[in-house]
Amino acid sequence: MPNLRFAAPRERRTAFVTGGARGIGRAAALRLAEEGRDIVLADVLPEGERVAQEIAALGPRALFLHTDVTDEAAVHAAIAHTVEAFGRLDILVCCAGILGLEAPFLEQSAAQFDRVMRINLYGTFYCHQAALPHMVRGGWGRCVTITSGARHGNPNQVPYCVSKGAVYSLVSSLGNAHCRENVFVNGVEPGRALTDMVVPRFTPEFLANPGNAIGRYSDADEVAEVIEFLCSERNTYVSGSVWSVKGGTG
């Protein structure tokens, strides 16, 4: 690690990753594990158990907890289980999220809006409220949440856009809450990565040349590289920011 004046000692830290069963969450969990972090995967998808096995094969300890992030009590219980099992909690990565129904605003129901908000926003809120006290007590913490450029608005994705706009604001607010206690909160805005949320919605021809500046969409592993840095001891000064990982501006 570079000789950074304010860098914390490198330790065997514990990360709690929501949505870790697939996509960016899985890539982030594996990348953190490569750096020697112990990983707790929180997801409703059973594939999380297989990811935990992949992580264990790399050397770190890994645990899969079936967790519905819309259930406040379940989130707090999962965080408590993490601390009980590993003795600490240092890193939070919130990747659990859904796109919801793509349809014009007048075809969106209040129930659909509520479902998207509860997963994308409330789940992030619950996780930070449960995790931050452990990080503050430990004197070190790093949190990263996935946002989206959809926060700027799309008439066919209103619930999703509103949820991601709110997440952006949450990150910006919490980034200033505990940074003097060495607990940093940031976001990553990946544009479109080649995950199960994106690939089925487009033709192979479009995915081969999506028209963005770099000429392709990212792999989840590329987004995970940025997440890993923001969650690392090398990050000594970044808090309250949302990093664009879009292969260009806009």
Structure description:
By secondary structure, this protein is of the alpha/beta class. The protein has a single domain, classed as NAD(P)-binding Rossmann-like Domain (Rossmann fold, 3-Layer(aba) Sandwich). 40% of the residues lie in helices and 14% in strands. It has a 7-stranded parallel sheet, with helices on both faces. Helix 1 runs parallel beside helix 2, helix 1 packs across helix 7 (220-230) and helix 3 packs parallel to helix 4 (110-138). The mean pLDDT is 93.
Alpha carbon gap, first and last residue: 32 Å
Write the CATH architecture name. 3-Layer(aba) Sandwich
Would you report the number of β strands? 7
Whole-number tally of structural domains:
1
Mean pLDDT: 93
The helix/strand series, from N terminus to C terminus, equals EHEHEHEHEHEHHE
Topology-level CATH name = Rossmann fold
* CATH class membership: Alpha Beta
Tell me the Rg in angstroms. Answer: 17 Å
- How would you write the strand order of the largest sheet? 3-2-1-4-5-6-7
Can you identify the CATH superfamily?
NAD(P)-binding Rossmann-like Domain
Q: What class do helices, strands and sheet pairing give? A: alpha/beta
What is the helix tally? 7
Largest beta-sheet characterization: 7 strands, parallel
Uncertain residue ranges: none
Q: What is the percentage of strand-forming residues?
A: 5-15%
Q: What would the principal axes of the Cα set say about the shape?
A: globular
Helix content: 40-55%
Keywords, please?
globular, alpha/beta, Rossmann fold, seven-stranded parallel sheet, 250 residues
